[in-house]
Amino acid sequence: MMVPVRCFTCGNVVGEHWEEFKARSREGDEDPEMVLDELGIDRYCCRRMLVSHKDLVDIVSPYQ
Amino acid sequence: MDEEYDVEFIEREERSAKFLVRGVTPAFANGIRRAMIADVPTLAIDEVRFIENSSVMFDEQIALRLGLVPLSTPPNEFDEDDVVTLSLDVSGPATAYSGDIVSSDEMVQPAEENVPIIDLKDGQRLELEADAVLSTGKDHAKHQGGVSVGYRHLQRVETVGDRGEFEDVDPEIYRGVIQEGDELVDTEEFDHDLTNRYPDQEVAVEDVEHAFVFSVETDGSMSVEELFTRAVESLDARAAELEDAVSL
């Protein structure tokens, strides 16, 4: 629903980078690989947290 | 142990560092690693009292997310059963961020300001009060100060002769830090492949005894130096406790 605060595997805090990642790679047209490198998310466990995430709050909020 | 330790930093940033420690046994190095992960206490939100939550997430889910936000933990200021109260009050349409958390103690602040807690729509509201407690990574991963803590042997590289001119060259991958004579070189400099650094020579690689390269990252609750010294202190305290327990 909301982006996980920490990486499931290593415990690194990744939630803080989500909005920038989303703006640049999903809504913008930058290469996700480059964006993750620039954000300093090096390990693949942390990278998959952002790459595989989908915000669902907008989808479920009408059905409160 | 009375011998001198030699600590040399290879990389040093606010939240991550790579350093070489000489003069420790493998058992001691591993003890420090484990202490950094599981035995250094940090503050984290443990109990949340909701006053209003009309968001799309359940109270428990929000409490979990709040718990995972790292809080700055000043050394030697708090005891195991101290409680720091924090509060959060956000009305939609807005996103509640970890930076919106208001702490009753100036020393205890969220280490990250931009972690989204919950997206609030029009008319939704989140108001809560939370208690942060001091505990160790053994108890819950949210209290773990060190993130991806590890060590490798320092490796000594020596050239032992020339490579045959027409030999097939296989990559020789080493990750970590190598020692050439008296100089330390991070393997990142040559893309972790020794054949890039010594294209025409044969090399011999061996572990340097009692020399370990630690790579440590913290979640922001304290600096790497502090995490490391407190890990050593906790080992020391347990050794003293054991000594007391077995002496008559």
TrEMBL record, chain A:
PROSITE patterns assigned: RNA_POL_N_8KD (PS01112)
Major localisation: cytoplasm
Gene Ontology molecular functions: DNA-directed RNA polymerase activity; zinc ion binding
Cofactor stoichiometry and binding remark: Binds 1 zinc ion.
Reaction it catalyzes: RNA(n) + a ribonucleoside 5'-triphosphate = RNA(n+1) + diphosphate
EC number: 2.7.7.6
GO biological process entries: DNA-templated transcription
Residues that bind Zn(2+): 7, 10, 45-46
Keyword DNA damage among UniProt keywords: no
InterPro entries: RNA_pol_su_RPB10, RNA_pol_suN_Zn-BS, RPABC5/Rpb10
UniProt keyword annotation of Cytoplasm present: yes
PANTHER family, per the entry: DNA-DIRECTED RNA POLYMERASES I, II, AND III SUBUNIT RPABC5, DNA-DIRECTED RNA POLYMERASES I, II, AND III SUBUNIT RPABC5 FAMILY MEMBER
Summary of subunit composition and partner proteins: Part of the RNA polymerase complex.
Name assigned to this protein: DNA-directed RNA polymerase subunit Rpo10
Phylogenetic placement of the source organism: Archaea, Methanobacteriati, Methanobacteriota, Stenosarchaea group, Halobacteria
